[in-house]
Amino acid sequence: MSLAKFVALTAALLVTSASALNILLTNDDSWASANIRATYSALKDDGHDVVLVGPAVQQSGKGGTAVLPTVNITAPGGEFGTVPVGAPYFGHELNDTNIYYFNATPSESVLFGLDIVIPQFFDNRTIDLVVSGPNEGNNLGPFTYTLSGTIGAAYTAVERGVPAIAFSAGNGTHRSYTTNTGLPDDPANIAGRLSANLVAALASGFNGTGRLLPLGVGLNVNFPLFTPGGNCTAPPYTFSRLTGSATIDKLFINSTTGFPQFEDFVAPGLNTVNNGVAFLPGETDVVQGCASSISVFSVDYDAPSPVAEPVQVQLSAIIGKAKL
Question: Which SUPFAM superfamilies match (predicted)?
Fold first, then answer.
């Protein structure tokens, strides 16, 4: 695809009119984070039917880990004191029965929403889209694909056949929704509105049939750092790829403590272009300015034929045998 066509597609993303969607919302910073509640409100304000099912406590860095509860809520209780010790392992807000906590990982929160909450409490409605996030802090590059609980929730949904978007914001402060100032320039409200805008663009013209994204495909979206009262409050969306200046951990021994620590390392294997559109900028570079990145990911891990076939030829002598 030419650069001109990509520019045209980028312009199309500015469309904000959308059909109402049935959305399952989750994240890894808990059901009570400022970002998820602001996004819940923004999506509802746009007319979508939203059910929030989020972890009872913060579950960052869990990737797609599958951990289910075996007991009710234990000490110290739900995040920010939102769920008392001894409460059931799942429940909902007293004043909003569309907002649920579940004492499990983000990946399993998605499945609990799809398999238990929606069928039992919402007439088994069809979920058009899973929205995960916005995370407190960016999730940039392929390394976070298996590390981030926000992305883990999204690719769990995609693997189940439900379109999904993982949103992450440069602002990494872990905040309760009760700290939201209510002002438009509150970072949680900026992230929530930007998330809703992208959902609106994706849903534009959707008539309730078909799919919002191809089967097995999801989106990873990252926002830059927002500063209340600052200039970066409406960062334009741009297409990106996961690779390109992406980092992975590199370990070193701390000379003071004697224990290992990690630092960011731009590794060649992590940034090799095997798939996707090679000329797109890496999402890591995009968010360094006042711009938001959109990367399209696939849950098909197979290498493309030109990469896989030489390896298969190299190993052909052992095919059909246990050893040479």
Answer: SurE-like
Q: Which helix (H) or strand (E) element contains residue 127?
A: none
Q: Which of 153, 156, 191 is nearest to 171 (CA)?
A: 191
Distance, CA of 291 to CA of 236 (rounded, Å): 5
Q: Which helix (H) or strand (E) holds 293?
A: strand 292-298
Q: What are phi and psi of 178, to 5 degrees?
A: -70, -15
- Phi, psi dihedral angles at 7 (to 5 degrees): -60, -40
CA distances from 94 to 70, 91, 110 (A): 24, 9, 21
Which among 111, 31, 25, 123 is positioned nearest to 68, based on CA atoms? 111
What are the residue numbers of the active site? 168
**3-318 CATH:** 3.40.1210.10
- C-alpha 175/C-alpha 281 separation (Å) is 31
pTM of the predicted model as reported, rounded to 2 decimal places: 0.92
Domain locations in the chain? 3-318
pLDDT in tens, 166-202: 999 999 999 999 999 999 999 999 999 999 999 999 9
